[in-house]
Protein 1
Amino acid sequence: MERKYSIGEVSKICSIPIKTLRYYDEIGLMVPEFRNQESRYRYYSKRQMVNLFIIRQLRTLGFSLKNIKELFSDLHLKDFGEKINERLEEIDEEIKEMERKKTAALYLRDRIVKGGEILAHSDEDFDSAKGDSLGLINVEYIVKGTLYYRRSIMKKYQNEEVSLERWIDITENCQKNHLSVVSPIIVTYYDNALEQFLCKDCDVEFGVLVERNEKNDQNQGNVQIRPFGGFEAVTKVHVGSYRNIMLSHVRMVQWINQNDYEIVGPISEEFIVSPIDIDNEDEHITKIIIPIKKKKV
């Protein structure tokens, strides 16, 4: 006589909770083969015990209950192998996605640490009378990277109001297209210097630097890829409220003129710590980047 196993025995032997076994019964994945007509208790066969162990293995590998049910409806060795290969391909994609998430998390951590270091020295570089962050003006080479961006004419653009909708749109598009982001939001103004503060129609680009790969070598939808960097620039770090950033722009343009440089490209702002990172505007950090070259004598 074939031995029958109670739900408690099956749970103990297969290490599957009784609640889970009852759910498998409810959805028809594994219905106990025997029923005692008097007690109405139900029992599993040894074959079902083996199948439950297989189900447990498949669940450990990440198979959905739906896929397992389809597999058990007509289980053959060849089909089983094909399903395992399909799952392996899915696992490879999951690993890639986890690597992208790790890269994003590491980058965010490094950016926040960098912001903290800047804030630690910001008090001595702040002119409270003018509300101006007096961070040093530097000339540096901007390393070339790949920018994932969206550019448009914004009507009556108000620079003091951060365009969160545009920022979120760029961020979500990067996630949708599985791109690893390696920079903060970068806003670039294609009009003449300081015109973004005049509440006029403004040619503005929102973007982020991403890791170069085959997927982002081509334009994707309305969001495009272009090179960013590869030029010499005057830079300055603005700490605090974005509403006061015009003062930093003015000081930089004055410095450029006084030191025999000229502006040779659109001005960008790199939001090292932004409103989508932290709510406290006193801790917002924006790096202004102005492409320049020496004037000809």
Note: DSSP finds seven helices and 13 strands in the chain.
Protein 2
Amino acid sequence: MNINHLRYFQEVCKYNNITKASEAVHVSQPSITAAIKELENELGYQLFNRVNNRISLTNDGISFLAKAKNFVNAYDNFHKEALDIGDKTHVVLKVGIPPVLGTFMFKKFFPSFEKQHPNIRLQMFEIGTISGLKRLSEGGLDFLIGAMDDTAYPQCDSRLIFRTKFGLAVGAHSPLAREPFASKDMICRQPFIIFPKGSYHYTAITEHFKEHPLNIIMEASQISTIKYIVENNFAVTITYQESFDATAKITHIPLEEPINANVSVLWRKNAYVSNAMKAFIAYTSTIENESEPKVESFWD
């Protein structure tokens, strides 16, 4: 049984679509189809129902998927443990990071981490915290740098990097820029731009304002887009102070009712933690002690 065929099978189950699965793993559709057929021939039973060009798992397929996930996870743990036995020249760690955090976290990892650990290469993926948790649980990421409240994610182990709060970001020349605090009533009257669903940012803010619906005019994943819109007073947003660089013509106003966030590094629970992973976890604990001010110092 081919380990790659099991990975392809899991991707097909994720999307319920062979074409989307082939795009996700960058393998041709005929190859995915052949791999599934080979699995079914080897097992002696059908994994999918096929009706009118649509597929769904059979009962046997549902049972096999659970076993396949356990096996692939076990294999990935074995692979990491095996690499730790010898002196592998280069190790790649896949790290997910939300766009709203990436702007000020990226510089904390590059180039200093790789200078300290030249045999470890970080491969960064821009992804929202909620979507990233799913990718992490599926083994597509080694780590997720994510924001969370005081509720822990049961499928993950985590280590706190720093605590911070959200603030209202407005154009520097906006009349709101002179306000000492931003109330819910004030904010909900403004055109609002927000990071998309799938991010902790979106979840935390919409939950906070569920009794005072926001006037959301746009969802945007690019910090440059949000910066342009806020600077030009087309809309306001709620985010971290460090989301924008020092050149941004943006003023941050503390929220009258704070939204707290814990920025943490997360990894899959019960996964083998390799030496490279241990080095990365240890490095994250030094970030808040760097010479730059802590994120939360703005609010102290």
Note: The domain at 91-162+261-299 is CATH 3.40.190.10 (D-Maltodextrin-Binding Protein; domain 2).
